[in-house]
UniProtKB/TrEMBL annotation:
Pfam family, one: Thymidylate_kin
EC number: 2.7.4.9
PANTHER family the record matches: THYMIDYLATE KINASE, UMP-CMP KINASE 2, MITOCHONDRIAL
The keyword Nucleotide-binding appears for this protein: yes
Known catalytic reactions: dTMP + ATP = dTDP + ADP
Thymidylate kinase-like domain boundaries: 8-197
The gene coding this protein: tmk
UniProt-recorded name of the protein: Thymidylate kinase
Top-level lineage group: Bacteria
Lineage per the UniProt record: Bacteria, Pseudomonadati, Pseudomonadota, Gammaproteobacteria, Enterobacterales
Species for this entry: Candidatus Blochmannia vicinus (nom. nud.)
Length: 214
């Protein structure tokens, strides 16, 4: 456990990308400059190719099955862990991840309803290799999620999903947040300033805790 692998989770539009940026700036302000950020799916040449397929689907005559989607997501994640996250952590860098394994459990497990045996096998494999030290789950309603993303020029497959789909994803996220260790659930319907202030407080606590363990 490095204490340096933090991931951000939540529905589309929850504010993950914004928070990853703010955490990085905050760590820099605290004198921590070696910070790598990741965004899933993606982050290596192979994972970025898969990101396009995962987000926009296959051609009309070859639509992507939900099991294939799951396998692609995990392929992308394994590439990212092996070629980016692990090497960064082993050099002593902090890694701030925009999505990680809880996303697959919430979207593919909760949203798509894929075969849970397969999902758990993949998830257990990934989390046994690397489990985040700290996870911020930004909780918003499906309605707020859709209202924050609806004006985008191009919506991906997930962003076009129904309220019911997002409700299933959220309820799975909330269940996971209550069961898993090191998950901090934050009401992300609050202003960005309030959400950031809560996260900075946790980071202060986390930094003190990490330094004591050195
Ligand atoms: N996926 C991914 C799976 O199904 N399974 C998986 O295992 C993985 C890893 C990725 C898609 O892939 C799926 C889920 C996703 O749909 P993506 O484009 O990377 O696609 O999508 P997201 O990761 O969801 O990124 P988004 O950009 O859609 O959402 P963010 O990053 O949560 O939100 P952000 O920071 O871009 O903010 C969105 C807008 O809201 C505002 C921001 O300013 C911005 O305009 N905002 C706030 N406004 C008011 N108050 C706040 N507190 C705000 N926070 C943000």
């Amino acid at each position: 456990m490095s204490n340096k692998f933090i991931t951000i989770e939540g529905l589309d539009g929850a504010g993950k990308t914004t928070v990853v940026y703010r955490i990085t700036k905050y760590l820099n302000k605290c004198g921590i400059v070696n910070v790598v950020t990741t965004r899933e799916p993606g982050g290596t040449p192979v994972a970025d190719l898969l990101r396009v397929l995962i987000k926009y689907g296959g051609p009309i005559n070859d639509p992507i099955d939900s099991i294939s989607e799951l396998l692609m997501i995990y392929t992308a994640r394994f590439q990212l862990i092996k070629n980016v996250i692990k090497p960064a952590l082993s050099k002593g860098y902090w890694v701030i991840g925009d999505r990680y394994d809880l996303s697959s459990q919430a979207y593919q497990g909760g949203g798509r309803g894929v075969d849970m045996l397969l999902l758990h096998a993949l998830s257990n494999k990934v989390t046994s290799i690397l489990y985040p030290d700290l996870i911020f789950y930004l909780d918003i309603s499906p309605e707020l999620s859709i209202s924050r993303i609806k004006n985008r020029i191009m919506l991906d497959c997930f962003e076009q999903e129904s309220l019911i789909f997002f409700a299933r994803v959220r309820s799975c996220y909330k269940k996971l947040a209550s069961e898993k260790k090191n998950v901090i659930m934050i009401d992300a319907s609050q202003s960005l300033e309030k959400v950031s202030a809560i996260i900075y407080r946790y980071l202060d606590w986390w930094l003190i805790r990490s330094r004591r363990k050195l």
